[in-house]
Amino acid sequence: VLQESNGPTDAYAAIAKADRLTQEPESIRKWREEQKKRLEELDAASKVTEQEWREKAKKDLEEWNLRQNEQVEKNRANNRIADKAFYQQPDADVIGYVASEEAFLKESKEETPGSEWEKVAQLCDFNPKSSKQSKDVSRMRSVLISLKQMPLSR
Predict the structure, then answer these.
(1) Sign of torsion, CA 63 66 72 77?
(2) Where in the chain are the domains?
(3) Which residues are in coiled coils (predicted)?
Protein backbone atom coordinates (compact mmCIF):
# COMPACT_ATOMS: atom_id res chain seq x y z
CA VAL A 1 0.00 0.00 0.00
CA LEU A 2 1.47 3.34 -1.07
CA GLN A 3 1.28 6.43 0.99
CA GLU A 4 0.86 9.71 -0.72
CA SER A 5 2.51 12.76 0.75
CA ASN A 6 3.36 16.21 -0.51
CA GLY A 7 6.31 16.75 1.86
CA PRO A 8 9.68 15.05 2.10
CA THR A 9 9.68 11.38 2.82
CA ASP A 10 11.98 9.73 5.33
CA ALA A 11 14.61 9.02 2.65
CA TYR A 12 14.77 12.66 1.57
CA ALA A 13 14.88 13.85 5.17
CA ALA A 14 17.90 11.66 5.81
CA ILE A 15 19.72 13.10 2.77
CA ALA A 16 18.95 16.67 3.83
CA LYS A 17 20.26 15.97 7.33
CA ALA A 18 23.47 14.47 5.92
CA ASP A 19 23.95 17.55 3.72
CA ARG A 20 23.68 19.84 6.73
CA LEU A 21 26.25 17.79 8.58
CA THR A 22 28.75 17.89 5.70
CA GLN A 23 28.51 21.63 5.05
CA GLU A 24 31.79 23.49 5.15
CA PRO A 25 32.84 25.35 8.26
CA GLU A 26 32.04 29.02 8.66
CA SER A 27 35.69 30.14 8.28
CA ILE A 28 36.07 28.38 4.92
CA ARG A 29 32.80 29.84 3.67
CA LYS A 30 33.96 33.36 4.63
CA TRP A 31 37.32 32.76 2.94
CA ARG A 32 35.54 31.65 -0.25
CA GLU A 33 33.38 34.77 -0.26
CA GLU A 34 36.39 37.05 0.35
CA GLN A 35 38.37 35.24 -2.34
CA LYS A 36 35.50 35.64 -4.78
CA LYS A 37 35.34 39.39 -4.03
CA ARG A 38 39.12 39.75 -4.45
CA LEU A 39 39.03 37.93 -7.77
CA GLU A 40 36.18 40.11 -9.01
CA GLU A 41 38.12 43.25 -8.02
CA LEU A 42 41.25 41.96 -9.75
CA ASP A 43 39.23 41.17 -12.88
CA ALA A 44 37.74 44.65 -12.91
CA ALA A 45 41.17 46.23 -12.39
CA SER A 46 42.72 44.14 -15.16
CA LYS A 47 39.90 45.11 -17.53
CA VAL A 48 40.50 48.79 -16.78
CA THR A 49 44.25 48.36 -17.29
CA GLU A 50 43.69 46.46 -20.52
CA GLN A 51 41.41 49.22 -21.81
CA GLU A 52 44.03 51.85 -20.93
CA TRP A 53 46.71 49.86 -22.77
CA ARG A 54 44.46 49.51 -25.80
CA GLU A 55 43.82 53.26 -25.89
CA LYS A 56 47.53 54.02 -25.49
CA ALA A 57 48.43 51.52 -28.21
CA LYS A 58 45.83 53.04 -30.53
CA LYS A 59 47.24 56.55 -29.95
CA ASP A 60 50.81 55.32 -30.48
CA LEU A 61 49.81 53.58 -33.70
CA GLU A 62 48.08 56.70 -35.01
CA GLU A 63 51.13 58.83 -34.16
CA TRP A 64 53.43 56.30 -35.85
CA ASN A 65 51.23 56.29 -38.97
CA LEU A 66 51.32 60.09 -39.10
CA ARG A 67 55.12 60.16 -38.76
CA GLN A 68 55.48 57.40 -41.34
CA ASN A 69 53.23 59.20 -43.85
CA GLU A 70 55.15 62.44 -43.31
CA GLN A 71 58.45 60.63 -43.86
CA VAL A 72 57.17 58.96 -47.01
CA GLU A 73 56.00 62.30 -48.40
CA LYS A 74 59.36 63.92 -47.56
CA ASN A 75 61.20 61.06 -49.26
CA ARG A 76 58.99 61.34 -52.34
CA ALA A 77 59.61 65.07 -52.59
CA ASN A 78 63.36 64.66 -52.07
CA ASN A 79 63.51 61.86 -54.63
CA ARG A 80 61.64 63.96 -57.19
CA ILE A 81 64.02 66.87 -56.62
CA ALA A 82 67.07 64.62 -56.83
CA ASP A 83 65.68 62.93 -59.93
CA LYS A 84 65.13 66.23 -61.70
CA ALA A 85 68.56 67.46 -60.67
CA PHE A 86 70.17 64.27 -61.92
CA TYR A 87 68.45 64.35 -65.29
CA GLN A 88 69.45 67.97 -65.77
CA GLN A 89 73.14 67.07 -65.50
CA PRO A 90 74.87 67.32 -68.86
CA ASP A 91 76.87 64.09 -68.42
CA ALA A 92 74.21 61.91 -66.77
CA ASP A 93 74.58 59.19 -69.41
CA VAL A 94 78.36 59.03 -68.82
CA ILE A 95 77.71 58.11 -65.19
CA GLY A 96 75.91 55.00 -66.38
CA TYR A 97 72.34 56.14 -66.74
CA VAL A 98 70.22 57.37 -69.59
CA ALA A 99 69.80 61.12 -69.17
CA SER A 100 66.02 60.95 -69.41
CA GLU A 101 63.24 59.07 -71.10
CA GLU A 102 62.68 62.00 -73.43
CA ALA A 103 66.29 61.89 -74.60
CA PHE A 104 66.05 58.15 -75.15
CA LEU A 105 62.86 58.54 -77.18
CA LYS A 106 64.44 61.35 -79.20
CA GLU A 107 67.43 59.12 -79.97
CA SER A 108 65.19 56.21 -80.91
CA LYS A 109 63.47 58.32 -83.56
CA GLU A 110 66.80 59.08 -85.19
CA GLU A 111 67.36 55.43 -85.91
CA THR A 112 70.18 54.58 -88.23
CA PRO A 113 70.85 51.00 -89.29
CA GLY A 114 73.18 49.24 -86.88
CA SER A 115 72.69 51.65 -83.96
CA GLU A 116 70.14 49.49 -82.18
CA TRP A 117 72.78 47.56 -80.26
CA GLU A 118 74.46 50.72 -79.08
CA LYS A 119 71.14 51.75 -77.56
CA VAL A 120 70.70 48.33 -75.95
CA ALA A 121 74.25 48.49 -74.64
CA GLN A 122 73.55 51.94 -73.24
CA LEU A 123 70.51 50.62 -71.33
CA CYS A 124 72.19 47.46 -70.03
CA ASP A 125 74.85 47.31 -67.39
CA PHE A 126 77.58 45.06 -68.74
CA ASN A 127 79.82 45.47 -65.72
CA PRO A 128 79.45 42.27 -63.64
CA LYS A 129 81.06 43.84 -60.56
CA SER A 130 78.52 46.64 -60.18
CA SER A 131 75.47 44.40 -59.77
CA LYS A 132 76.45 42.02 -56.97
CA GLN A 133 73.15 42.32 -55.13
CA SER A 134 70.90 41.70 -58.11
CA LYS A 135 70.09 38.50 -59.96
CA ASP A 136 72.64 36.70 -62.06
CA VAL A 137 72.27 38.07 -65.59
CA SER A 138 75.55 36.81 -67.03
CA ARG A 139 73.81 34.56 -69.57
CA MET A 140 71.63 37.42 -70.81
CA ARG A 141 74.71 39.66 -70.96
CA SER A 142 76.61 37.10 -73.06
CA VAL A 143 73.64 36.70 -75.44
CA LEU A 144 73.37 40.46 -75.93
CA ILE A 145 77.11 40.82 -76.53
CA SER A 146 77.10 37.98 -79.05
CA LEU A 147 74.11 39.51 -80.85
CA LYS A 148 75.84 42.86 -80.90
CA GLN A 149 78.92 41.32 -82.48
CA MET A 150 77.01 39.16 -85.00
CA PRO A 151 73.45 40.46 -85.54
CA LEU A 152 70.77 38.11 -86.79
CA SER A 153 70.21 38.31 -90.51
CA ARG A 154 66.69 39.00 -91.68
Answers:
(1) negative
(2) 10-97
(3) 32-74
